[in-house]
Task: structure prediction
Amino acid sequence: MKTTSLMWMAIVAANICLSPVVHAGTPAEATAMNAHVQRDGGKVCLDGISNFENVDPALSHMKAIRCVLAYEGQSVDWDWLLGASGEAFCCYYHPDGTHLTQFVHSWDIANAALSLYGFAGQWRAASTGPDIAPAWPVMQAEIAAGRLIIAPGIMPYWNGINSRCDHWYIVTGVDPAAGQVTILGAGDAAVETPLPTGDDPRPSPQGTHPCWYGILRHIEPGKSTGHYGPDKPMLTITRLGPPMEPKSAALAALQRAVQLAHEPSVTAEYGWGKGVYLSGLAALQRLHDDLLATQGHGLDEYQQLNPTKDEPFAGLKPEIANLRLLAARRHAAAGFLKQAAQLLPDAKESLLAAAEPYEQSATHAHAAFGVCFNSEADWLKFQALEQGDQDASHHIGWRSYFRKAEEKLADPTNRQTMADHLAAVLSAEQSAITQIEKALADLNDSTTP
Result:
């Protein structure tokens, strides 16, 4: 198998599946989706499956879902997938600052996205202890039946211990005798890698990692599971029936958009990063206010006046980075609303009027991100470095990039500029939600006798 290519990983995310992956091996059994099951003793793998771009962890769960749906023969529009699932309308913020903010909702969103196309996902934990043996028969059975598996956290790494919990990968093959799995989403071709065992001999905290895991959380009240989902999670996917009727999907998404905008907060009850995360308009308002309230001029004074808590909390910097994700979500929201407008003619005017401020929100969110983190290409360059090297934080370029971002955050003029962009984001978001609420009222009037 090819190893991860840093050149490929630096490509700006285009949100497309890449060229098919082909294994050499024994004669193949055809599956319904033009893939083939290859068998060699206990080794089983699926051939002929398109890889997917997965450099940045933001929206990694949606990219994996889209790739599986494409494999299942579904035509998947990116804006529709994000909008109808609710992803495009999410926004969260933790006052202590953490990169985990971007993963608050991924569990429910993944299942919502699958249901749009007539599929259901079932989370299956291989076992509760350190033994990975129970995972093999589950994986073998799914692959042999021509079904892909999503396993958040499995990543290619030489020692078979580490995991990358913020990426979702797709398992296309298993070799229990060798302790290997074949995964997509970790480079420019399929990669064979040890299934993580978690038996890291180093002292805590490095030695306390599970075998592999994903950062998953329920958004439904009372169903929070913290930020760590089950140990050794596997998302198996089953077809239930035809895709959801588009008008119904659009209407449900509009209702969800309003709910998410006005939801004040969500709670991660346990796990790394547990605590209260502000949601929707409240999240954006607090981030704006925190930027204006932050003190310090120059990096030394800024760090002295704004000490951070223990990991995973790191102050404002990761939350500013998350504005890039907000921009991607809101750009998709605008695209989704334009499609919904064609499906719901009684609300067409209001839906098109909501799309424009979401584009404005995306523009200002990305501009605020750029004040600290420069260009999209710069960000992806260092995300690629991290995906290719578990110890990327020791790389001189990596350290320099994120130090410079914090130096920019330590400049009051830059904080004011970012706050100004956030004020524009807030205004645009409020306008968009007002128009969506009007659209729902229009639809209600059109169905009322």
In short: The chain is about 45% helix and 15% strand. The mean pLDDT is 80. Residues 6-76+119-239 form one domain. The first helix runs from residue 6 to 9.
